[in-house]
């Protein structure tokens, strides 16, 4: 299995300005959020990218991803039928191929400069199946993410065979359905906003007929149909769409990049000044 | 290897289920002690919980029931106080160490064995409770609640449907949950107790039915789910909890401490539900977090909170239908639905959701310090179901710890198994009632656990039989034979249930069954005990065509039987008959338009007092709703009743408090003196004590009744034959420990079945006198002393039962003095609760007790410390003034004069407590008293750990009885090896002379009264705290501590002019029955048989 295509969803009406926000990356270069995400895909060896957007956003967004190193196209989601539906809008683009999927409001900061998407794609190609990136997450954050339950694959630390997927579970459900051997109690495997999906996922999404199609429900079914794995990512993801999300993402980028000392010094100065006033 | 340990750990059920009693019967003291040492070693080393617990129960039973009876075991020994203190603090292991050291130093003794038995039993139950706590917390789905300690970590979110305002009135939607209660066709010998289900899952089987109810003849109409809960968002940042039926509400804002304080108000059950549902997780307790912040996270709306309302539809307490557990489950279910922890907001629940609700109900009961069985939340499931224990398998948290899982499996019986017709016939045949009694089932559940672990032969056979009856009932249900079901449930009650626990039955129940059978003959198919014991909720199965008539007659029969027995049997309420229907839906939720009407009656008065401008949107919406409801449904009257005072005074029947005080000889001057002394701190609990400088020492060796020379027996027998002796039973006391302050007459309580019938204390005493009279050839004169509260019921009962057939002279000696109870001083409450050694409870129960005690101290302060206690039924405000007065009363009320007139040779009285059942007119002891020429001979017994309240001592060198309250320090009591049995042999003339009287004065009321007053003034008045029950609502009871004073006969022994002797008598003769919880041990250790042998019924 080869993964050369990527689908990025950025069609949320309430977050239309988000992909255009500018951050400074690890190398000190100013980039838009969308370009950072596209860059992550390119580092994973992706050659064709499809961005699903709100009607009318293709033009402004296309300017953000010129010279990205991959072929980028835009598809509009005409009905606001949820996240799963947005992915499904790219079905013609993906055709019969496996594809990398990233969400348009997450920024990934890899550990020691390693790309999270690269590791995911490598695993998917090696195992020839769908793989979701997951992060070990404390239970208080369960209301924000989809989560998976499953068994670790012997000899592959950090790789799990997914048995259950629940979108935003309560801790009660999580404790009953999603406990994963080897994790500390109260911690679960939650989605990282990054997946390699097989064509079967598009088929499953196509069968959903509701106003709010979730990707998690399709993935839950996928787990019953074919091998579906989860790979724990050590890199960090930042949801740029929440309060202070962009700020935290910027901070993380700056602190693992070339300007680390400069930013740290400035931060300390701010903290010291705040303390003196307090 | 120890023989007993090999029984415990054997994998072979035939060996494992051997009884301890069988082993102990043939063992010597030496071999029992060797076994004890081996068990001690093994239980400490074992990691298996159930092996340890069974070993502890074996150790308890050996010390409690077997060792003391073996040759070579002494009776008298001192129990180390340090061990007792550890016992109170629930530090059982340390207590055991201290007691064992004392045993190896002084040799085995009855006294030390009693202490060891108490410690082993305590440790066994503590270990079991610890395991249940761990299991409940480790149920998957519950664990996270104990980890969450910060508002920012709060993981639940409200279901969005509940935050969308309604279009009409702008209020938030109301989620309504209605849950049936459960009745159990059989519980296979209380097999739903957690410990039992977890150790013996194959035998843990219950058949229970979910039902809707209505009290017959009430305004509620058709049967409906008896418990309901309501949930909604409100526009105030608080957690508001309202109990409509208990008429209580609370709003909790910032301080979550109030939520975790269960004893503070009547809302403990709602609080437990909110916590156990995870809505406010248990981990938040003590975290210092603001509840407002959690509510904001939950609702997603700043400034908003939630309201939870509970309602029980007219079902009184003690119904044996698990009303409170099902209400807890109902509240948990509504909270879980609202917080997205169930799949659907409305409708029924899925099986895994019902199981989680049941697990959380268990958690809630543990949090609230109460405890039910695992079948109790059966109302959550629909219809008829078989609930069975499940063996623990790999992956279960219990695996490797216990044989069974904490939670059972519920199998709902389908329509093909139990047909529609059978269900209908069951409904048409069963008359369901509440008999009016509401006793605590807790002690029974402990007895069941104990007997199960000991595998006592009869009980173990009974348990197997109970399991067979369950199978039989299931087959009968499948065959549709309802009449035979009635026979089977009655056989279950008569057989296994009473074999395991005789106390599950009582005279009231048996009278009802007999009367119903007499009246209905073959149309009455059988009796059906519900829940833990009979007397409250019960079932009677009839031929369907007689059901309506049976319902009508049962109401009359119950009311009439209650009237006859209520003098001696504690009833909480008037009996009722229910209408019921099988509920085939289980717990069910829907969106409701309104809160229930009584909610508005409770909550609106406060709203109406507010300025209309300051009303919030929700409050306005409530007003609008109520005004619509009120106009349409006549609810305005209820509101008016609440807003405006009503004149509840009943027309005078001579029973008002002032009238009673006057009638019963209240002395206002003495009362005022005591009241002012109490308020000034001159008297009180601390002042009861003798100064520390007084030297109190053990009495040393004294004469023993079992070693008296033979000629004394003849001397006594001659005196009996010539009519020189009368028996006096002191029956003026309230027996508040026996009935927990219920205000019934202990002396009339049919406490135990002896010689085939339930007998009251008085009947037993008269039976002993009858036998003595027969042997002596001369009937014994018997006097029962009475007081204001016991006289009329005793007189009435004796008339009803023709003096229990007693043909000898029988007198009632009415009391002449009464006291008025007082609100206690907070200093005395603190002294009793904080300075005196206290039995600590299990951590959660202790929390509940601490908070209710804080509330009671507040109550005393608000009511006015030391003021008259008048806020109860008038009779409950009075108190008897101690048994000192009961003997001089014989002089004053003419009874002694009449006794002497009838028996001129009368010289001696044997005076004893009504609960000293083994005391009889023993000729040898009488002979000793005569030969000693003493004015008084006192019977004492060697002390065991439970014998509290003073004893025989040398006080500054003078041998006398000393009351426990008078001892300067608690530990002093443990230095006294003899305990007062309160049986006194009195030489009438010698006693009269101490009073400065002789026989000729007895008709001179003035001289007698003056003499009594003179001696009374020399007797100390002890201030005591007593629990008094206040009943309200539907079988609800509150218990308040009140202050009263008493003078005690034991202090007569301090008078130097009263020549007193002391005689040690066997325990079975001298022991007293103070609490119903003692009964089972009393029956098992041979005491009951001993008493039976003294009687001629």
Provide structural commentary.
The complex is a heterodimer of chains A (278) and B (1097). Chain A is of the alpha/beta class and 278 residues long. Helix content of chain A is 34%, strand content 28%. Chain A has a five-stranded mixed barrel. Chain A has a two-stranded antiparallel ribbon with strand order 2-3. A two-stranded antiparallel sheet of chain A has the order 7-13. In chain A, a hairpin with a 5-residue loop joins strand 2 and strand 3. The N and C termini of chain A lie far apart (59 Å). In chain A, 44% of the residues are buried. Chain B is of the alpha+beta class and 1097 residues long. In chain B, 42% of the residues lie in helices and 17% in strands. Chain B has 39 helices and 31 strands. In chain B, the strands form seven sheets. In chain B, strands 2, 3, 8, 9, 10, 11, 12 and 13 form an eight-stranded antiparallel sheet that branches. In chain B, strands 16-31-25-28-24-17-20-21 form an eight-stranded mixed sheet. In chain B, strands 6-5-7-4-1-14 form a six-stranded mixed sheet, sandwiched between helices. In chain B, helix 6 runs antiparallel to helix 7, helix 16 runs antiparallel to helix 17 (482-500) and helix 20 (597-608) packs across helix 22. Classes of the chains: A alpha/beta (278), B alpha+beta (1097).
Give short descriptive properties of this protein.
heterodimer; A: 278 residues; alpha/beta; B: 1097 residues; alpha+beta; eight-stranded antiparallel beta sheet; 39 helices; 17% strand
Structure described in brief:
Chain A is an alpha/beta fold and 278 residues long.
Series of H and E elements of chain A: EEEHEHEHHEEHEEEHEHHEEHH
Report the major sheet of chain B.
Answer: 8 strands, antiparallel
How many strands appear in the DSSP assignment of chain B?
31
Helix content of chain B: 40-55%
| SS element count, helices of chain A | 10
Q: Hey, roughly how much beta strand do the residues of chain A contain?
A: 25-35%
- Spatial sequence of strands, sheet with the most strands of chain A: 8-11-9-10-12
Alpha-carbon Rg of chain A, integer: 19 Å
Whole-Å distance between the termini of chain A?
59 Å
Number of DSSP-assigned strands of chain A: 13
**Proportion of β residues of chain B?**
15-25%
Dominant shape of chain B: globular
């Amino acid at each position: 299995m080869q993964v050369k295509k990527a689908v990025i969803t950025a069609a949320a009406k309430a977050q239309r300005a988000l992909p255009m926000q500018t951050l400074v990356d690890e190398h000190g270069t100013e980039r838009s959020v969308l370009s950072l995400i596209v860059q992550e895909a390119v580092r994973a060896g992706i050659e064709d990218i499809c961005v699903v957007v709100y009607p009318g956003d293709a033009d402004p967004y296309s300017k953000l991803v010129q010279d990205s190193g991959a072929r980028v196209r835009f598809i509009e989601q005409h009905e606001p039928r949820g996240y799963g539906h947005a992915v499904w809008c790219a079905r013609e683009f993906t055709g019969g191929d496996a594809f990398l999927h990233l969400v348009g409001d997450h920024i990934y900061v890899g550990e020691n400069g390693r790309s999270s998407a690269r590791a995911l794609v490598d695993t998917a190609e090696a195992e020839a199946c769908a793989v979701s990136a997951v992060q070990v997450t404390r239970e208080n954050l369960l209301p924000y993410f989809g989560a998976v339950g499953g068994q670790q694959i012997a000899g592959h630390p950090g790789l799990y065979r997914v048995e259950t997927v629940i979108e935003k579970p309560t801790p009660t459900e999580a404790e009953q359905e999603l406990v994963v051997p080897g994790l500390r109690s109260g911690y679960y495997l939650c989605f990282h906003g990054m997946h390699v999906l097989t064509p079967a996922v598009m088929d499953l999404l196509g069968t959903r007929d509701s106003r709010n199609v979730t990707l998690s429900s399709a993935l839950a079914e996928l787990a019953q149909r074919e091998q579906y794995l989860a790979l724990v990512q050590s890199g960090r993801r930042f949801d740029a769409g929440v309060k202070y999300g962009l700020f935290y993402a910027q901070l993380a980028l700056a602190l693992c990049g070339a300007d680390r000392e400069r930013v740290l010094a400035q931060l300390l100065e701010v903290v010291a000044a705040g303390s003196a006033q307090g | 290897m120890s023989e007993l340990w090999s029984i415990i750990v054997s994998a072979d059920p035939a060996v494992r289920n051997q009884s301890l009693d069988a082993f102990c019967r043939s063992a010597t003291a030496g071999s029992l002690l060797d076994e004890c040492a081996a068990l001690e070693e093994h239980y400490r080393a074992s990691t298996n919980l159930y092996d340890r617990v069974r070993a502890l129960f074996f150790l308890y039973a050996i010390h409690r029931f077997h060792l003391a009876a073996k040759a070579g075991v002494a009776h008298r020994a001192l129990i180390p106080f340090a061990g007792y203190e550890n016992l109170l603090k629930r530090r059982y292991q340390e207590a055991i160490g201290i007691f064992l050291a004392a045993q190896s130093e002084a040799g085995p003794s009855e006294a030390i064995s009693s202490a060891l038995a108490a410690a082993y039993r305590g440790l066994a139950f503590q270990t079991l409770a610890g395991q249940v706590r761990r299991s409940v917390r480790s149920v998957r789905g519950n664990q996270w609640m104990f980890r969450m300690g910060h508002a920012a970590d709060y993981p639940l979110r409200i279901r969005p449907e509940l935050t969308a305002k309604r279009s009409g009135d702008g209020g938030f939607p109301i989620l309504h949950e209605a849950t049936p209660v459960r009745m159990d066709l059989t519980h296979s010998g209380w097999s739903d107790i957690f410990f039992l289900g977890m150790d013996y899952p194959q035998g843990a089987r219950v058949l229970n039915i979910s039902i809707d109810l209505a009290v017959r003849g009430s305004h509620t109409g058709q049967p409906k789910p008896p418990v309901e809960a309501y949930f909604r968002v409100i526009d105030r940042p608080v957690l508001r909890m309202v109990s409509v039926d208990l008429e209580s509400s609370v709003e909790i804002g910032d301080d979550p401490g109030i939520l975790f304080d269960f004893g503070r108000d009547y809302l403990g059950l709602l609080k437990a539900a909110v916590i156990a549902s995870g809505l406010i997780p248990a981990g938040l307790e003590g975290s210092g977090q603001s509840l407002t912040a959690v509510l904001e996270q939950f609702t997603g709306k700043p400034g908003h909170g939630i309201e939870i309302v509970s309602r029980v539809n007219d079902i009184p307490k003690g119904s044996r239908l698990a009303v409170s557990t099902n209400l807890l489950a109902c509240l948990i279910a509504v909270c879980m639905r609202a917080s997205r922890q169930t799949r659907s907001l409305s409708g029924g629940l899925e099986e895994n959701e019902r199981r989680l609700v049941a697990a959380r109900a268990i958690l809630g009961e543990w949090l609230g310090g109460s405890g039910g069985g695992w079948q109790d939340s059966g109302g959550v499931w629909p219809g008829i179901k078989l609930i069975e224990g499940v063996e623990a398998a790999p992956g279960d948290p219990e695996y490797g710890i216990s044989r069974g899982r904490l939670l059972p499996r519920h199998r709902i019986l389908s329509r093909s198994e139990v047909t529609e017709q059978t269900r209908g016939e069951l409904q048409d045949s069963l008359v369901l009632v509440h008999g009016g009694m509401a006793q605590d089932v807790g002690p029974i559940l402990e007895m069941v656990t104990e007997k199960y672990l000991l595998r006592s032969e009869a009980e173990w056979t009974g348990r197997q039989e109970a399991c067979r009856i369950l199978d039989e009932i299931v087959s009968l249900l499948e065959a549709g034979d309802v009449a035979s079901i009635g026979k089977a449930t009655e056989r279950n009650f008569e057989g296994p249930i009473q074999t395991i626990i005789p106390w599950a039955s009582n005279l009231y129940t048996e009278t009802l069954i007999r009367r119903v059978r007499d009246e209905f003959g073959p149309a009455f198919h059988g009796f059906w005990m519900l829940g833990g014991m009979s007397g409250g909720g019960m079932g009677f199965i009839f031929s369907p065509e007689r059901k309506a008539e049976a319902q009508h007659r049962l109401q009359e029969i119950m009311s009439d039987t209650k009237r006859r027995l209520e003098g001696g049997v504690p009833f909480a309420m008037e009996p009722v008959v229910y209408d019921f229907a099988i509920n085939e839906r289980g717990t069910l939720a829907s969106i409701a338009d309104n809160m229930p009407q009584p909610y508005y009656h409770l909550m609106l008065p406060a709203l109406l007092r507010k300025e209309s401008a300051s009303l919030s949107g929700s409050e306005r919406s409530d007003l609008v709703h109520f005004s619509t409801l009120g106009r349409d449904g006549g609810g305005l009257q209820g509101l008016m009743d609440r807003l405006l005072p009503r004149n509840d005074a009943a027309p005078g029947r001579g029973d008002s408090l002032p009238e009673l005080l006057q009638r019963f000889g209240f002395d206002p001057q003495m009362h005022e003196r005591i009241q002012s002394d109490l308020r000034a701190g001159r008297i009180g609990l601390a002042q009861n004590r003798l100064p520390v400088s007084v030297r109190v020492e053990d009495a040393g060796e004294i004469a023993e009744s079992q070693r008296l020379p033979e000629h004394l027996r003849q001397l006594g027998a001659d005196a009996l034959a010539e009519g020189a002796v009368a028996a006096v039973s002191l029956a003026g006391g309230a027996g508040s420990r026996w009935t927990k302050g219920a205000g019934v007459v202990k002396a009339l309580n049919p406490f135990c079945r002896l010689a085939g019938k339930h007998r009251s204390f008085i009947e037993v005493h008269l039976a002993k006198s009858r036998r003595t009279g027969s042997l002596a050839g001369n009937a014994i004169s018997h006097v029962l002393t009475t007081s204001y509260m016991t006289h009329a019921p005793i007189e009435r009962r004796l008339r009803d039962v023709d003096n229990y057939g007693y043909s000898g002279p029988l007198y009632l000696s009415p009391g002449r003095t009464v006291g008025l109870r007082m609100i206690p001083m907070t200093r005395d409450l603190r002294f009793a609760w904080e300075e005196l050694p206290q039995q600590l409870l299990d951590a959660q129960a202790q929390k509940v007790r601490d908070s209710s005690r804080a509330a009671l101290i507040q109550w005393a302060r608000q009511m006015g410390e030391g003021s008259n206690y008048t806020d109860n039924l008038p009779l409950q405000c009075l108190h008897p003034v101690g048994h000192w007065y009961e003997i001089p009363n014989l002089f004053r009320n003419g009874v002694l004069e009449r006794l002497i007139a009838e028996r001129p040779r009368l010289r001696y009285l044997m005076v004893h407590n009504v609960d000293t059942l083994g005391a009889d007119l023993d000729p040898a002891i009488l002979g000793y008293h005569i030969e000693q020429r003493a004015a008084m001979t006192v019977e004492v017994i060697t002390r065991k750990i439970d014998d509290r309240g003073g004893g025989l001592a040398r006080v500054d060198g003078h041998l006398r009885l000393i009351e426990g309250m008078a001892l300067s320090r608690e530990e002093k009591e443990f230095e006294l090896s003899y305990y007062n049995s309160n049986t006194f042999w009195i030489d009438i003339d010698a006693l009269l002379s101490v009073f400065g009287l002789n026989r000729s004065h007895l008709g001179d009321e003035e001289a007698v009264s003056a003499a009594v007053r003179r001696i009374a003034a020399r007797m100390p008045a002890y201030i005591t705290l007593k629990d008094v029950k206040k009943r309200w609502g539907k079988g609800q009871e509150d218990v308040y501590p009140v202050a009263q004073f008493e003078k005690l006969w034991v202090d007569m022994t301090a008078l130097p002019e009263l020549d007193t002797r002391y005689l040690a008598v066997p325990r079975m003769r001298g022991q007293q029955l103070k609490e119903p919880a003692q009964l089972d041990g009393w029956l098992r250790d041979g005491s009951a048989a001993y008493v039976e042998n003294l009687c001629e019924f």
